[in-house]
Amino acid sequence: MKYVCKRLAAMVMVLICLAAMLAIPASARTDLPTVISQAKEGVVKLFVVGFSPDDTPAAAAVGSGFAVGQKGSTPEYFVTNWHVASAYLSEYNYAFDSDHVRIWIMLDNFTISDVTGLPSEATSVECSIVRISESGYPDYAILRAARPVTECKPLPIRSSESVKQGETVVALGCPAVVDDLSATVGSNDITATKGTVARHMVMSAAGNTNVLLHDAVISGGNSGGPLIDENGAVLGINTAVSNLDQNLFYAVSIGEILPMLDRNNIPYSLYSASPMSGNT
To answer: DSSP letters of the chain?
Structure first.
């Protein structure tokens, strides 16, 4: 009888342990759709106009960007690509300098003024360029909005050095295909594509820029948007499609940008499993 009781007790313990093990993945599993929905609040669509020397609009482009700042703050600073902020014309290999470019964050229901032919003040926020790559490498630009953008929230940043090969990532941005398929312009244009990190690498052809190679699909208009992890922390700036493999994409490592934020005393939040800490 004692032997039977011991066996029953052992079986009960096994079942309890098994139930506990089965419960762990369910509670620890990342709710990626919720993470994406929250991270989209930190992504912006940018409208960029390049002007000729006589101040005539000469080119226009649309790209993506994301907000940085202390957790819980209303952001003023945004990160994007150099080739977005310079309205780079790849077919002519021409970039407008900072004195001949104007950049706006496109808000919901974005409109163009019938009077100026430029973004309406009521549905956009103009930005100035705080810092931009002089050579185009690394491909980044830091913008400051003319006012705190209450419609956005800053995204946390995670050191890309800690990113592991095979880790799940999501590319957020505003691909041009959305403009072709939708008559609306606003936050709903932000798309999300999921992929994995293929590897870290240094691109010698891009000024020895540290990049993350990944397979989360991006296309024209995605440039400047964030590459985030499963917790919504920014790992890099989505930048380009691989010339050798159309199924692989490059994101400039966020580590390339942090020193520039520090030099310009721009606040940001670093992601950690505990409450996030900032650089100030």
So the answer is: -HHHHHHHHHHHHHHHHHHHHHHHHHHHS--HHHHHHHHGGGEEEEEEEEE-TTS-EEEEEEEEEEEE-STTSPP-EEEE-HHHHTT-BTTTTB---GGGEEEEEEPTT--B-TTTSSB-GGGEEEEEEEEE-SSS-S--EEEEESS--TT--PPPB--GGGPPTT-EEEEEE--HHHHHH-S--SGGG-EEEEEEEEEEEEEGGGTSEEEEEE-S---TT-TTPEEE-TTS-EEEEEEEE-SS-TT-EEEEEGGGTHHHHHHTT---EE--SSS-EE--
Whole-angstrom distance, CA of residue 153 vs CA of residue 124: 16
At residue 151, φ and ψ (nearest 5 deg) are -80, -5
Q: pLDDT per residue over 11-59, tens digit each?
A: 434 333 333 333 434 334 579 999 999 999 999 999 999 999 999 999 9
Q: Write down how long the chain is.
A: 280
Hunting for tokens 């098994």 — which residue is that?
18
Take residue 139 and report the two structure tokens written for it: 């491909």
Q: What's the predicted TM-score (pTM) here?
A: 0.86
